[in-house]
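Closing statement on the flavin-adenine dinucleotide sub-project.
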Amino acid sequence: MNRRHFLKTGALLAAASTTPLSAQRAKPLLPKNRQETPRVVIVGGGFGGLTAAKRIRQLAPQAEVVVLEKRSHFFSCPYSNAWLGGVTSFETLHRDHFRPASTHGYRIVEATVTAIDRSQRRIESSAGVLHYDYLVLSPGIAYDYTPLFGDDREKARAVYEQCPPALIPGSEHLALVRQLRALKEGNFIITVPPGTFRCPPAPYERACMVAAWYDRHNIKGKVILIDPRTEPMAKPKGFLHTFKNLYPDRIEYIHSAQLTGVDPKSREITFERFDPQALDFVPRTLPYAVANVIPTIRASDLIAKAGLEHDEGGWARLAGPHHQSANDDRVFVIGDAQGEYPYPKSGQMANAQGKVAAEHIAARLVSKKLDPGAFLPFNVCYSLTQSDPATGIVVFHEVSYSPKDGIAVRARDTTIPDRKTAKATADWFGGIMDDIFL
Ligand SMILES: Cc1cc2nc3c(=O)[nH]c(=O)nc-3n(C[C@H](O)[C@H](O)[C@H](O)COP(=O)(O)OP(=O)(O)OC[C@H]3O[C@@H](n4cnc5c(N)ncnc54)[C@H](O)[C@@H]3O)c2cc1C
């Protein structure tokens, strides 16, 4: 797929951002920045963006920091599978933006960024125009249904609403929980997307939480994972152990399978799988009561719109582990939207990368340049496997860097679910929320 085709079709669900700038939007949002008060603008008030905002203010109190976020409040994807499985409440996942902004002295503006003119260091948003000295982009991901449905937007819209992917916070998660809570019988099918996607363990953890819900509520039916890979993309040993030992008759893991269609009217999913005996791909159709169809995942289209170097998936290219864009030293890209390094796309990683970028920006503001590898991120990612009693598994990622060999990421994961890890999951979530919001 070439860049033009991607720009045309890739941002299917973010089409609103192509609206021409109205007179209202052309008004200044804030007066032009002055030399004595450098301005750092952050696009995206999620895991990466809010972390960067707090850390820049801590390290460079002379800087004005403005976060542009299109949502009215924060809704966490991490730990949302625990809510789906009935382990935690809806309220646990939500925070207001106002408290961290006033505690740390940054400004949060509820606005959608529509264009970025890097030559003028100027941003256009639904709330007006503003200029920056440094820009941090942490806009996350977008869905791309074109590999499944081509240009049939109606079909994509119907599948998005009826089989919500729930990888971007909002109504999708609410709809999925509503559907599970109403279920009396039938299959719950989860389709794992090909390629890179947000939170590689999420679909497999989701299968465990749904299976636990089925068991607790005596729901007849199976939880079916359809995956193009040969084994789970994350924590393969732990998830395969869990499927086999905790849910032998409940979870069906169909690997090496390509999703070919979804019919929300007949409530059927079709896929094909290579049959080694027939030496051919064999099509198969399964009925569902609830389907969680996760399409191909790409970076937010803001990366391409800003003219930043990116790969086929729209993921931003970087000049080094300091998260500076490959083609603009005033722009830093953090979180899921970066594609330079094989970092897992996680909230923990986005949080750590926000701190890395903040260190470099704070140094630049006092005319210092740090070594690009001076600060590195790390990752720890927990997944719940059972709900009552709660158990879990975990993976740690260590990052190392040398100018000659670049970045290396080493993973260490657990296989046998235990209660201690479920307790650590809740503690990790509380800890990262406090780190961002207190
Ligand atoms: C089900 C699930 C479970 C997960 N579990 C874990 C876990 O256990 N541990 C873990 O570490 N990670 C987990 N993750 C992954 C984690 O949610 C993401 O990796 C993390 O949110 C990435 O942070 P980010 O800042 O890049 O993007 P986000 O947190 O998504 O923030 C991007 C923000 O940008 C805003 N935005 C986008 N475009 C615009 C625009 N044009 N104008 C203004 N604002 C805009 C969005 O509204 C959003 O708030 C999970 C994800 C899912 C879906």
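The pocket of flavin-adenine dinucleotide is lined by residues 17, 43-49, 68-71, 77-78, 80-81, 112-113, 138-140, 167, 198-199, 202, 300, 302, 335-337, 345-348, 350, 381-382 (CB under 6 Å). With this model delivered, the sub-project is considered complete and its resources will be redirected to Aim 3.
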